[in-house]
User: What shape does this take?
Amino acid sequence: MTPLRHTADLAETVTTPDGAELRLRTRGPARAACTVVLAHGLGLSCDTWAPHATRLAAGSGGRLRVVRWDLRGHGGSGRGTARMDMRLLADDLARVVAACAADGPVVLGGHSLGAMAAARLAADRPGLFGGTVTGVLLAAGAAAGPGPAASGGRARAHLVGAALAAGTRTAGAVPRAVDGLRRLLPHRSPVYRAAVRRTAFGDGAPPAQVALCAQQLHTAPADVLAEGLAAVAGHDVRGRLEALRRVPTVLLSGGRDRVVPGRARRALARELPGAEHDVAEAAGHMVPAEEPERVCAHLARLAGVALDPPP
Assistant: This one.
């Protein structure tokens, strides 16, 4: 039986040089065989990883330590004074890893914006991989955002990039007005939840996960969303992911992902030809929430740990 202290979260904080206090939730023993560090997507929080933390810590019999954290400006984490971009998010991730398991082994799990931050960490600090970091799961990730650098001259990509830039400028310029408009449509509204389900989920979306995602997106500050969208638009690590070729890497995507286009997923796959590609055909962009057991199985295998059968 897993000791009770290994199934409850420990609250921790990591402070960055620019004053952002990053909230961490840690579950499992300090001397675990491996530490799994999980980063969430834009507008969400580490609560999206709570079921995975429970399953990995308890199902591994205490062999895994799971650290899930709120990206800056999200959930319980502060903003700091620096403008958020992908390099800054990668630096934050590096600090979380150093605080929790500086000597490794560490398995990184990232979803969407969190997956891009993990990829940027591999590009910026390749020395961490193969030593401290021994495995990586990138869920709904991309090697480049829809900005000009990633457009490849295609008209549709240019339009997507232009629309994203316009939305980013609007939300960043008048965040209070955007927040005010969002208050007119509560997150419990069937219309709002239906829009979230249609955009972020695939077939058979769990209602509780749709409700959680809707609530998190609804309460995320508009200026944080704006900076996050700008970070995504400027993301480009193509040709810089050699570090991920040195460690087992899984690319997990939803077959019905309407947020990350298929060409972006294929571009990431081309960057990492040796990675394992897993497509959950019925899932959407929120594939970790839709396929939690699948995600946990990948993370445990990357950590070299066998999970007990699901209850």
Q: What stands out?
A: The chain has a mean pLDDT of 88. The first strand starts at residue 10 and ends at 15. The chain is about 40% helix and 15% strand.
